[in-house]
Structures are given as C-alpha cells and as structure tokens.
Design a protein that fits this description.
Chain lengths: 137, 121
C-alpha cells in the first residue's frame, strides 16, 4: 500500500490550465528524481488527460499526488470532469476516437505511458481517470 | 497568438524553432503562420527545430505532422529536427507515427537532408 506524501489540486478551466497542470507534473517528477524518460512520460500523460478534460468536458480538475511505496517514489494523478462521459470506452481506449481536437491517441496513448491506469465514466456523469507513474520509465 | 513564433529564411528553406512550453493556441497559429510564409516566400524546404520541446503530446505531434503534410501539398518538404530522446521514446510508446514527415538529428543534418548548401566566407 502506498503512502501519500503531498497533494495538489488544480482546476482545469481554460487551455492555459492544461499547460499549468503538465508543468506541475513535470516539476514534481523532476524534483523527485524521475529519470528524463519517466518525466517526459508523466508530463505527456498529464497533458493528454488535462486536455481531454478541457476539450471534451469543458474543464474539470486535476489532483497531483506524490506517493511512496517503501523506497519507491511515484506520482498519482487524478483527472475529473463533469462532462458528457465516454459512450464507447473500449473504442476510446483502443485509440479509435478522433472526435473534437484529439487524435483519439490521448487516452490510449497516456495509458501506455503510465504504470497504472484506471478510468471511470458513464454517459451524463463525467469521467474520472487515475494514473500512477513510478520514477522509472 | 499569430506571429508569436519567429520564422527565419535560410537559402530556400524556412527555419522555425519551437519554444519550450507550446500552448495549443500558439501551435495552431504556428501552423497558419508557416503555411502563409510558404505561400509568400518561394521556399522548397521547411525545417522545424523541436530541440527545446521537453514534451510532444498527441496534439502537438498532430500539428507537426499535419503541417508537414500541408507544406508538402504546397510544394515544400518538411524535416523535423532535434527531437529529444525522451520525446522519441514517449511518442513510440504512445503508438504515434510521424508518417511521411522526415526527421533529422539537428539543424545541420536537416539542411543536408533538404539539399541546402550553406557556404560560409
């Protein structure tokens, strides 16, 4: 079981917030000794998921946590929105959704970049994505 | 946001360097500016330096590849140069392909790929 060391909640209410969220993820990963590959992976996943909340749901929030599991250091990021939800989750996770501005790679791609990926969504009740990335690529 | 990224002309090539943290709106404007510049200048090559980008997500990647495809339709070939190792690794892991848009290690190699001869002195 991991221990939560710090928690930072950020709103996603405009496009600039997407930049702020991925910057926060990057700075924390860098400060905690993530290697460059793991840092790029967690930053990219943060960017994809924050953008999804902004473009598909008109905003939401990101919660970025530093977690520890013994000697292991990681980042857990949760992205929540109250948007329309994802109708065909299997298709979205396969990277087949090319709606709005994303290539559909956003969800599928970020899933491949992290160590743990959990998504809860239902039509009309928003989407919640939680990912964990440990300090090694 | 338009005009926020400087576009240089070297011989018959346009050279653009993208800055560290690329906002979506800037990326979109960059694409428009670049296509407008190709129309304005009689260039045959386009060099996009992304060595400052610490992250290329699917959105930025799509802007880059789309710009390359559009430039190709207009008659200019694009080379993306300076991709960092961690960015390359991330794109591969995400399953993103740059398709027909070529890449090179750095600006020098990119210019060679485009057949540009820059003589000094």
């Amino acid at each position: 079981m991991h221990r939560t060391v710090s928690t930072r909640t950020m709103k996603i209410a405009c496009e600039d917030d997407v930049v702020l969220v991925r910057r926060a993820a990057r700075e924390l990963a860098h400060a905690r000794g993530f290697d460059p590959f793991a840092t790029a992976a967690v930053t990219t996943a943060a960017s994809e998921l924050a953008r999804n909340a902004w473009t598909h749901a008109g905003g939401g929030q990101a919660v970025i946590e530093e977690i520890r599991d013994g000697e292991r250091v990681g980042l857990r990021m949760r992205f929540e929105d109250q948007g329309p939800g994802i109708k065909d989750l299997d298709r979205a996770l396969a990277g087949g959704n090319s709606t709005v501005r994303s290539l559909g790679l956003g969800l599928a791609g970020s899933r491949r970049l992290v160590d743990d990926f959990d998504i809860q969504t239902a039509v009309g009740s928003g989407t919640k994505v939680t990912v964990v990335k440990w300090a090694r690529f | 946001m338009r005009g926020s990224i400087p576009i240089l002309k070297v011989a018959n090539t346009l050279l653009v360097t993208l800055q560290t943290d690329l906002h979506d709106a800037v990326a979109e404007a960059f694409q428009e500016d670049l296509l407008a510049a190709i129309e304005r200048e009689p260039v045959t090559g386009l060099l996009i330096d992304i060595s400052a980008l610490y992250m290329v997500d699917s959105y930025v990647a799509r802007i880059l590849t789309d710009t390359g495809k559009m430039a190709h339709l207009m008659g200019a070939e694009t080379v993306i140069v300076g991709m960092r190792p961690e960015v390359a690794a991330t794109l591969v892991r995400m399953g993103y392909s740059f398709g027909a848009v070529r890449t090179a290690l750095n600006v020098d190699e990119g210019l060679i790929l485009l057949g540009v001869r820059v003589s000094v002195g």
